[in-house]
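Protocol check, entry for the methods section draft. Step 1: assemble the input record (protein sequence plus ligand SMILES). Step 2: submit for complex structure prediction. Step 3: store the structure tokens unaltered in the notebook. Ligand used here: zinc ion. Step 1 record:
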Amino acid sequence: MENFQTGHDEFKHSYFKKHEKELIELAKKGQQPKALFIGCADSRVVPNLVTQSKPGELFVLRNIGNFVPPYGLNECYNATASGIEYAVKVLKVTEIIICGHSHCGAIAHLYSHSDEKNPHIDKWLALGKSAKSMAIISQPKNIDKESLLRVTEKLSIISQLDNLLSYPCVRDLVEQDKLFLHGWYYDIENGDIDYFDPDDNIFKPLSDLE
Ligand SMILES: [Zn+2]
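Step 3, stored output:
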């Protein structure tokens, strides 16, 4: 805890002091972020750090595996679904980024064969099952495990983008060209981000995005 306490002290006396005007303005006017960022809860994936964005610029939802539950199938409390509705209908974001990443524990867990029961985790990870099936079907049988995981991580991003389109509020705006969806893949080993190009069906370096 001491690290966090010292960190906050530093934040208060350096960053906050330097950006005080903008931060007070944000408090008065409220937030108007242009983008919703759906990322993994993994501690190595830090949305504002990897995009170098400031407070007020990104509305962020993070969960295990950067998964998106399909619309309307969940009767229990659903933080991700309500966050999507809030970002689209109230904040009126114009971009949604689903950002997966390399070495994702959620994706690795899809392949683990533990008998341990974790009811909440087990139910949530079902959202990655179609990516796992697609990866196994599409790859050679002798593929090494790490390569299979990297493929599954990327296929999951595409699968979650599909789930996002099951939300009527998202689909309607996408069809009207008022909302744009993006699939990103962050490599934690080198800091690179690739984006999914649906026309060519491949991931390309984000720096090549026009
Ligand atoms: Zn992850």
